[in-house]
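Page 42, continued from yesterday. The earlier attempt failed because a stray header line got pasted into the input along with the sequence. Redoing it now with the clean sequence only.
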Amino acid sequence: MSKFKERLGKLSPKKRLYALETLPGHLAQSVQGERLHQLLTDFDFIEAKLDAIGVQGLIEDYDLARVSDVLLSEGKTGTLGLIQGAIRKSAHVLDEDKTQLAGQLLGRLLYFEIPQIQKMLKQAKQWKDSPWFQPFNTNLERPGEGCLRTLTSHTGGIISIASTPDGKRVISASLDQTLKIWDLDICSQPKVLIGHTKSITAVAMTQDGKRAISASRDKTLKIWDTNSGSAVRTLIGHTDSVLAVAIALHGKRAISASWDQTLKIWDLESDSQPKTLIGHTQPVIAVAMASDGKRAISVSIDNTLKIWDTDSGTEYKTPIGHTDGVMAVAIAPDGKLAISASTDKTLKVWDIDSGIKLRTLIGHTGYVLAVAIAPDGKRAISASADKTLKVWDIDSGTELKTLTGHTDRVMAVAIALFDKPVVSASSDNTLKIWDIDSDTELRTLICHTDWINGVAIAPDGKRAISVSADKTLKVWDIYSGKELRTQTGHTDKVMAVAIAPDGLTMISVSWDTTIKIWDIDSGKELRTLVSHMSSVNAVAITPDGLTMISASLNNTLKIWETDSGRELKTLTGHTDWINGVAIAPNGKQAVSASSDKTLKIWDIDSSSEPRILIGHTDRVLAVAIAPDGKQVVSASKDKTLKVWHIDIGCELRTLTGHTSGVTSVVIAPNGLIAVSGSSDNTLKVWDLLSGKEVASFSGEYGFECCAIAADGVTVVAGDRSGRVHFLRLEGVKQLTVDS
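This time it went through. Structure tokens are written below.
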């Protein structure tokens, strides 16, 4: 116990709260820099402040150390900056679940061999208030890598964002039919604007930030008072979904673009009918207005841009060059250049006066959906369906930086007038805040280059195997996190791996339709089995190691003799892909999970019809059988897990808590807890007797697979970024005793 925690424990609740609120500020004002540094590197203080005040108050404490008269050394200020950066990056997690503090700090800071940080992390490892996941090594983005912060609140994809000139407020528009106004200084819960009856497709804000205009698939635009959050006026005129809106710098005029193939110019100070601009031959996707309000540029899926004179409503020029639909356009502050973004995966830079294409920006691997130009007119930022943003030098057309972190299409990007911050919006329902001037790039992790589809832990608990869509297998030392070997041989995605009970061989299955058996020590390929007529998705080995079962996308399972590789039997009955298979401890029963929303219980030795478990409302993606052979746990895209009794085939309980599809599940050797992974970026621990969630760990990408070692506490998981996570469950032994 630290001295701070000891002293805090002697205070009354009221005095304790007062101390947590005021002590950092008092130390800063009285120029007690060393004591402030000690306080802000004390895990007990960090935990207490988070619990009592919240994450934003904690983040703000670290800003005090930057005050010049605190007189901290550069090194100590840097240390506090790293801790603050880690807390800021985890803020969206800690806002929802304060029990993840220790795991988040360890996952982000273990890399740094700084005495004060290592001392703080040593304290964190002793945290015992409830079960939690302890990372063995750095498994999350470090401070200074990726985005500064993630904002979560929308329940649907975010399509558009707009920022005030000072970058302090952002308004986001979502498919969940709401707009949200965010104060980026405090990142508190946003103000919610409700009024549209269908998805909101775009939003723009006046320069003073007092008014916003939104566009919707309900065919209308709405003008909002951003201070009160009330709708001031509804603009009606389009005959189909309104897809974009832009406001002139003076705030008196707006222009909208619609699926009805027209644009409309609105006088925001009168109720006069809008001026309609006709010329595109397909829906108009986006529009931008020059700072003087006299010119606008629209883009369409007819592959063209059109430059308009907004006073007369006449078409000035039609630049042509894209080979597919144009999705976005931005105009440089000086009004001389425009940049367009297209589903042809390129951006193009145009001279507005002449309509001539100056250069093409190539680098994205998916549709380019949005673009913004920095206030200096020298850099542009693009957003893409490839889940990345790219920073470009406009004059040379060279790519300066790639920003990664979103887990779905990046739909929009906004840059404040004063260049900071940059905010992006994604179909993953989040906004991310970036510092594009930072020299720190996301480090190159030793990991797979594509999704990890399966992991397994050797019986000795020392090694793990991961398999990936990058067509490889990797062997890892669990406790150091070091890659021991990469194995190649498959020609398509490797989907699953199983290790024989003796730990000598491992079996991988792939979408190349093959099954491969490998020597686990040497990595030598021993045998390739070719019999499936379609991609192979899953594999399991009987406890005696003599038999294995594989599952295929052609709706069948095959039973094999492991030593000889001889096919023994084909099992049919599912009507869609089989995504997972598990074998009971007695080796006589198997359970399969399928995209047909069912599980089937098979008698391996007989030809009897399988029993069917029905209850999930979407694809069943994984299945596990308890050590006693009596319970089955299934994981589904319907966001739930279900516990079943294998003998009578009935559902015992449903486990809810994930907010997206559940992709994997494993049961601990004691049969009392299960661990699940989900595309909601979390791993969760479940008490199978009560059905309650008892612990959670949040990563930065969806978890595709997980495994638990024979010790019942070591967990290995793989995510969609290609990263392997090595974790230890803390506090679960007491949980199982209590159960």
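Notes: The chain has ten helices and 56 strands.
Reminder to self: strip header lines before submitting.
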